[in-house]
Design brief:
Number of domains: 2
CATH superfamily of the largest domain: OmpA-like domain
Distance between the termini: 99 Å
GO cellular component, one term: cell outer membrane
Protein name: OmpA family protein
CATH class of the largest domain: Alpha Beta
Strand content: 15-25%
Oligomer: single chain
Order of helices and strands: HEEHHEEEEHHEHEHE
Number of strands: 9
Keywords: Cell outer membrane, Membrane, Signal
Structural class: alpha+beta
Subcellular location: Cell outer membrane
Pfam families: BamE, OmpA
Length: 269
């Protein structure tokens, strides 16, 4: 019986010494360093925490120098190994993290050293690269929206066939592109005025309704593309407000010269 007790005592002492050898030595009084950092082997951890745990990252980020053991236990629990709880100056954890964008798991050991008042003072990771899991991802830089011009001029010849008010394929694309810009700034837009113009060729009785139909065609296309109808006003001003004067000459040359006057203007308020 005495031999059995002696054997048990020796075995217990051996285990205790093995445990002591698994932890850091000569922790400084201020808890900011240790004579030698030692890491307990994960295979020796108690079954309660076998395999480690997935920590709450937000809670883990709250652990800073100066927090006490009670606060730490509330955030990430008590240590995962058998170093003890209240009377020791080192806590060890085994955490699992998932790699960004995959289901792969990385295991990391985390160590906290305490000062003589049992306040956390220094923190270590093994491997050291595991500290990156606590980095807060920077939000993607918001796209800087271009300033919305207060007036956009669309050449009628690029939108419509000559003397017509139906948008061409190219014209529809041009209006679609404009609609995308308008929608991007819609929160700041109070109103949109679409104004159609013609050149001076032809009578006012002909030019006025043509300019109105062209303005409405652009407005309708914008509405189809998602611009609120309640914010758009369409009007036609015929041959008024020309932006270019051209001398009379051969018709083909005159038509080409007057092209800038055939336009649709979109004013944004």
């Amino acid at each position: 019986m005495r031999a059995s007790l002696k054997g048990f005592a020796v075995a217990s002492l051996t285990l205790a010494l093995a445990a002591c050898g698994s932890y850091s030595r000569d922790v400084a009084k201020d808890g900011r360093s240790a004579g030698q950092l030692e890491w307990p082997a994960p295979r020796n951890m108690p079954s309660l925490h076998k395999g480690g745990t997935f920590p709450n990252l937000d809670n883990l980020r709250l652990i800073k120098a100066g927090v006490d053991k009670h606060q730490i236990s509330e955030l990430i629990g008590f240590p995962h190994f058998d170093e003890g709880v209240w009377g020791v100056r080192e806590w060890n954890y085994l955490f699992n993290f998932r790699k960004a964008g995959s289901d792969d798991v990385v295991q990391c050991q985390y160590k906290i050293l305490f000062d003589q008042d049992k306040l956390a003072r220094s923190f270590y990771w093994m491997p050291a690269s595991c500290a990156a899991f606590l980095d807060v991802a920077k939000p993607a830089a918001a796209a800087v929206a271009e300033d919305m011009p207060q007036r956009i001029t669309l050449a009628a010849d690029a939108l419509f066939a000559f003397d017509k008010s139906e948008l061409t394929t190219e014209g529809k694309q041009a209006v679609t592109d404009l609609g995308a810009k308008l929608r991007a700034h819609m929160a700041q837009i109070q109103g949109i005025r679409v104004t159609g113009y013609t050149d001076r060729l032809g009578s006012h009785a002909y030019n006025q309704p043509l300019s109105e139909r062209r303005a409405r065609a652009v407005m309708d296309a914008l509405v189809t593309d998602g611009v609120p109808r309640t914010k758009i006003l369409a009007e036609g001003l015929g041959e008024r407000d020309p932006v270019k004067d051209c001398p009379n000459g051969a018709r083909e040359e005159l038509v080409a010269c007057l092209a800038p006057n055939r336009r649709v203007e979109v004013r944004v308020d």
